[in-house]
Amino acid sequence: MSPEVLVFRTAREASTCAADAIGRALRRPGRPLLILASGKTMIPVYRGLVRLHAAGRAPFRRARTFNLDELAVAPADPRSFRSFMERNLFSRVDLAPDAIHFLRGDVPDLSREGTRYERELARAGIPDLAIVGIGSNGHVAYLEPGRALAPRTSPVRLSASTRRALAEDGFRPVPRTAVTMGIETILSARKVLLLATGHSKRDAVTKALSGPVSPRCPASFLSLHPGLTVVLDEKADGRRQSDVR
Predict the structure, then answer these.
(1) Fewest C-beta atoms under 10 Å: which of 53, 70, 117, 238?
(2) How far is the CA of 87 from the CAs of 111, 130, 205, in angstroms?
(3) Taking the model in full, what pTM does it have?
(4) Can you give the pLDDT at residue 240?
């Protein structure tokens, strides 16, 4: 089954689509469980989500969140993704503090931290929606290209290209390690939304959607999910016209 691929003229329109998808998940009955991403691509998404929240269309009061990954820094460090989320989303919506679940990158044993996080997620239930991005090298979360992918949350060593991208985004000095959800953890969500914008993501998106499914392109594993939606702007869409459905 091929994923649903939505292509928008601009990055702003693609980000609005992603924010709307999160808003719909938040309006469903029950206690929505979300997996969220960090990084530059997500900033306009969270701005849109804050606007939806102010309009009553993205209620966070019943929601619970888990983030995909964290750098090997303390939560209060301005470089941490915990700080990123606080600046861009958490402090601006009605999400209860005890509903926020986050990895700690400053603990002495990151493997044990991954195990703790997996247990928390298992207790919370099946995630309703996972929002993910893609690196220019095809990484998803911080699962870097290699011979194999970690199935569950684990420590990772960041690639040179990932560290360069973080430096360009202002994360300096850039840590060499992080802790990230595994590919099976991500794929456990009922729905997955992959957002990619900008020309720098075009080759990675093409490989992820065209195959083969390989740990050399970690994002290619997302194509195995029956509930995958891919949201792109035109610059990130490098598929041949015959590939477009």
Answers:
(1) 238
(2) 27, 20, 28
(3) 0.94
(4) 55
